[in-house]
Amino acid sequence: MRTWSKLIVTYTKPLVAKLTKPRTYTHTEASQSVSKAYITPVTPKEAFGDLATRDLLRGLVSLALARTPGVATYGGKFLESIHRSGPRILKDFVDGIVRRTVFGHFCAGETLDECERNTQHLRRLGVKCLFDYAAEREPGTVLSEEDLRKEEAAKEYAAELEIETIRRACQLGKGDFACIKITALAVIEHLEKLNAMIIKDWKKSADKEASIRGYSVDPELSFDFEKLEIFKSHFSDEELRILRNDVFRIQRLCALAAESRVPILIDAEHYCLQDAIEYIAMGMQKRYNTPQESYVFTTIQCYLKDSERREKLVTRIAEQFGFRLGLKLVRGAYLHYEREYASQRNIESPVWNTIEETHRSYNTIASREIARVSQGKTSLILATHNLESIRNAIKNIEQLNMRHDNEHFHFGQLYSMADATTASLRKAGFQVVKYIPFGPLEEVIPYLSRRLLENQDILGSTSVDMSYFYKELMRRITRK
Ligand SMILES: Cc1cc2nc3c(=O)[nH]c(=O)nc-3n(C[C@H](O)[C@H](O)[C@H](O)COP(=O)(O)OP(=O)(O)OC[C@H]3O[C@@H](n4cnc5c(N)ncnc54)[C@H](O)[C@@H]3O)c2cc1C
After folding, report:
1. Residues 416-436: tens digit of each pLDDT
2. Is the pLDDT confidence value at 14 over 70?
3. Does the keyword Cell membrane apply (predicted)?
4. Where are the domains of the chain?
5. More confident site: 302 or 102
6. pLDDT band per the 50, 70, 90 thresholds, residue 447
7. Do the Cβ atoms of 162 and 134 come closer than 8 Å?
8. Pairwise CA distance, residues 170 & 176, whole Å
9. Is the Cβ–Cβ distance between 102 and 67 less than 8 Å?
10. Which of 331, 433, 448, 451 to mutate to test the pocket of ligand 1 (most atoms within 8 A of CB)?
11. Is residue 331 lining ligand 1, measured as CB closer than 6 Å?
């Protein structure tokens, strides 16, 4: 037995070393050793000792697949087209493979019950969970009346699931969060229209700073659309009725979240919807956040050239209405989509041209908002797997003498990504929240496509994950 295990280690090591070698831009090793000064890395056993061997193997295969040329770029599109128009037999065959690999790895299941079962190992580490029904819609869809009726049922279904998620989080009482995607709850066509209206209004103003002063389309964030002239001139009565209902549906969820003391995070999505999403999110914050507590969070994507403008806008609104800002900071998940969208329309890309600019923007806003946490003005979730950003944040926190377990500060990572970092942060006493996506396979295809793309070009964090999986597997084989 010992000889066999030695042989396995000897022959698999070079292959895994090749697979886990960081691919694109990387300062991973440097940042890892620096971050060691701030957080103690966990051992593979501490991070993954609880996982079944089957799950470790699946993790390795899925991440290797993500790094196989072509799979990340075309995998999602292939899956979508099979689901749209492929023969049933091929669809069942492909779904079978996807379920056993990337779906099983990046999603915690198809239902909430499966999610709860598959996240026990995270709970044992003291990680907070955030179950996310990962259905979403892409902009550019014009709906017929028939489609609108179907959409209505889909939105109600998404809202019911969210209510169930909030209730469970409240019953468990483990400080979990909830999260929503506005595109799963409102008609995209209306959001696009609302977005265009907000931007047109800002551009009309002679005041260059207009866009950070607030929303002159609805200065009180009243959502009283039928009474606001500008809304009446841009939307038909029927569209306004639907928009009102959609916003009311979102409001019902935020009200329940605030009442249950389960903070709800509103995700950032495509750029052409983001001003509309932010307007709705800030209106909800005005209603449910208090000067002490944030129950509703908005999200800023730092890969956007205007991310600092967005930060100014949301902090000003929070100050104007006197509530504690709830903010989740991400780099942004739609990079490839945004670039393609801009180049097809021959417009300037809203996304920074280089990753260094995105890093700079992320770290600058993060430092400023950590300072605001220490002043009692913001509740912050730093959603990132980037070790350099995590290191910077910890440095800031220590300079400000903030407690690691400050209740208004969390790190956030995605399910099955940077799990070793998640465990290390918990070990160092930080609060960490893990995004746990779930939903039927056909609904989560856009989410899976993004994870494949991200794990291809993520800053070496995939390599760290793979080497941890491998080391834990080898530990089990050699029975250390
Ligand atoms: C808890 C949580 C919640 C999230 N919520 C959202 C959300 O609401 N909306 C959303 O969009 N995303 C969301 N994400 C996804 C998030 O945007 C990605 O996970 C993130 O971009 C990965 O980056 P990173 O910070 O881990 O760092 P890294 O892996 O270091 O950076 C990779 C990121 O840098 C950016 N980038 C890469 N190449 C370039 C380039 N050439 N030029 C400019 N920028 C580049 C991209 O944003 C890319 O994803 C969430 C993630 C987590 C963990």
Report:
1. 888 888 988 998 999 999 999
2. no
3. no
4. 108-444
5. 302
6. confident
7. no
8. 8
9. no
10. 331
11. yes
Pocket flag, ligand 1, residue 192 (CB < 6 Å): no
> DSSP secondary-structure letter at 215?
-
CB-ligand 1 contact for 335 (6 Å cutoff): yes
Of these ranges, 9-23, 24-38, 131-145, 312-326, the one predicted with the greatest mean pLDDT is 312-326
Distances (CA, A) of 315 to 186, 209, 216, 286, 383: 25, 14, 16, 12, 19
331 CA → ligand 1 middle, Å: 4
Backbone angles phi, psi at 354, to 5 degrees: -130, 155
Write out the two tokens for 384.
């990132």
Return the percentage of the chain with pLDDT > 90, whole number. 51
CATH number for 108-444 (one of 3.40.350.10, 3.20.20.220, 1.10.238.10, 3.40.640.10): it is 3.20.20.220
Question: Whole-model pTM?
Answer: 0.88
pLDDT in tens, 337-384: 999 999 999 999 999 999 999 999 999 999 999 999 999 999 999 999
Q: Whose alpha carbon is nearest atom 38 of ligand 1?
A: 355
Residue among 277, 330, 357, 419 whose CB has most ligand 1 atoms within 8 A, to mutate: 330
The amino acid at residue 260 is S
Q: Which residues contact 62 (CB under 8 A, 6 or more apart)?
A: 101, 102, 104, 105, 106
What distance in angstroms lies between residue 366's CA and the mean position of ligand 1's atoms?
14
Q: What is the pLDDT of residue 30?
A: 36
DSSP conformation letters of 137-167: --TTPPP-HHHHHHHHHHHHHHHHHHHHHHH
294 pLDDT higher than 70: yes
Q: Report the pLDDT value the prediction gives residue 11, as an integer from 0 to 100.
A: 64
- Cα 333 to middle of ligand 1, angstroms: 5
Question: For 211-236, how does the pLDDT look when each residue is reduced to its tens digit (9 = 90+)?
Answer: 998 999 999 999 999 999 999 999 99
Q: For residue 302, give the ligand 1 atom closest to its CA.
A: 47
> Atom 5 in ligand 1: which residue has the minimum CA distance?
267
Contact 48, 472 (CB under 8 A): yes
Count of Cβ atoms closer than 10 Å to residue 344 Cβ = 8
Ligand 1 closest atom vs CA 299: 8
